[in-house]
Amino acid sequence: MTADHRRAAVLCGIGTWLPPRVVTNDDLAQQLDTSDEWIRSRTGIRERRVIDPGTSTSDLAVEAGARALKSAGGGNVDLVIVATTTPDHPCPSTAPEVASRLGLTGVPAFDLNAVCAGFVYSLATAVGHIVAGIASRVLVIGADTFTTVLNPHDRTTVAIFGDGAGAVVLRAGTADEPGALGPFDLGSDGTNAELLIVPAGGSRQRGSGQPLDPADVHFRMDGQPVFRNAVTRMSESAAKVLAQAGWRIEDVDRFACHQANARILTAVARTLEVPEERVVMNVDRVGNTVAASIPLVLADAAAAGDIVPGHRVLITSFGAGLGWGSTVITWPDIDLG
Ligand code: ACO
């Protein structure tokens, strides 16, 4: 096989951060009409992390970003992207503050909101900047404090989501190097926006001239159609990206699927015919951490020695929007901190 010297974006650092407070299913069962048995059997989740008062998304993003930069051997970056749906403020975006707190004042920085698909969309955006020569080293952070938009009395959503952050550094390199990201498959379907929505807080509600209904500030989810869409969209997208990459399903050493629900992961793996032991999973310990989900599960699996250098990893994600995205990477030999 001939070497492929095309310019590419190569993963060279990874870091994560979880808020220290653990909330178990039994803790939830003390406040809500639910049980550890129900949550574990329907979602695979045992516990999740939740921020304490006074903590916000940028705090998690800075911690994960600092660890990713350290893992990449320090040095500067020339772009910062923060994938988040729970920014510190509706305006301005969170990324400039995160960049400044990391000592990167002056570096271009913006937020990208594609909900649970936000990290894969951000990777694709960073790859585009690097391949086009606009940037040569990019910090991509997925950070969400999704518990801040949940209705604390809604057992269907409180059981599922947790807070967290994960980050990677991408550098310019060549397509034949381990760690080179891509190809990508990205997609969206706005006709199903109502399935996962926070109705208030944006221009639709603010410009309506109607008084605010307090219930509309919380996230709403229609669980069963979301489940079906998640399985279909992630399976189709993952199959497309494999075809683009020229990989067969047997070539996939590890499958990193958005950690929404263990049953969704199992169903996607079954549809694609990926053996169960190749599916990486941490949803039991962190729940659905939205934009942080993919970097958190990759870092956890790498730290546990379940993903090792040379492994061919298939990544797929899905979330509100609807939006979805997939990519592939051959895992590089990086410092895991
Ligand atoms: N504890 C106890 N009972 C519950 C709970 C709970 N935590 N949550 C729901 N129930 C009840 C429901 O109220 C319902 O009761 P009813 O029959 O009296 O009405 C019953 O359990 C069954 O509810 P279903 O919705 O049929 O349960 P299902 O097996 O579909 O599981 C779940 C619900 C876990 C939400 C599932 O539909 C799911 O995982 N959907 C996908 C969710 C998801 O991944 N969302 C994130 C997408 S990412 C993003 O972009 C934000």
TrEMBL record:
Its main location: cytoplasm. Keywords: Acyltransferase, Cytoplasm, Fatty acid biosynthesis, Fatty acid metabolism, Lipid biosynthesis, Lipid metabolism, Multifunctional enzyme, Transferase. GO terms for molecular function: 3-oxoacyl-[acyl-carrier-protein] synthase activity; beta-ketoacyl-acyl-carrier-protein synthase III activity. GO terms for cellular component: cytoplasm. Its EC number is 2.3.1.180. The keyword Lipid metabolism applies. Residues 259-263 are annotated as: ACP-binding. The active site is at C116, H258, N288. Pfam families: ACP_syn_III (PF08545), ACP_syn_III_C (PF08541). It is found in: Cytoplasm. GO terms for biological process: fatty acid biosynthetic process; secondary metabolite biosynthetic process. Residues 110-190 form the Beta-ketoacyl-[acyl-carrier-protein] synthase III N-terminal domain. CDD domains: KAS_III. It catalyses: malonyl-[ACP] + acetyl-CoA + H(+) = 3-oxobutanoyl-[ACP] + CO2 + CoA. Pathway: Lipid metabolism; fatty acid biosynthesis. Residues 242-331 form the Beta-ketoacyl-[acyl-carrier-protein] synthase III C-terminal domain. Belongs to the thiolase-like superfamily. FabH family. HAMAP family: FabH. Homodimer. Catalyzes the condensation reaction of fatty acid synthesis by the addition to an acyl acceptor of two carbons from malonyl-ACP. Catalyzes the first condensation reaction which initiates fatty acid synthesis and may therefore play a role in governing the total rate of fatty acid production. Possesses both acetoacetyl-ACP synthase and acetyl transacylase activities. Its substrate specificity determines the biosynthesis of branched-chain and/or straight-chain of fatty acids. The last Arg residue of the ACP-binding site is essential for the weak association between ACP/AcpP and FabH. This is Beta-ketoacyl-[acyl-carrier-protein] synthase III. It comes from Lentzea jiangxiensis.
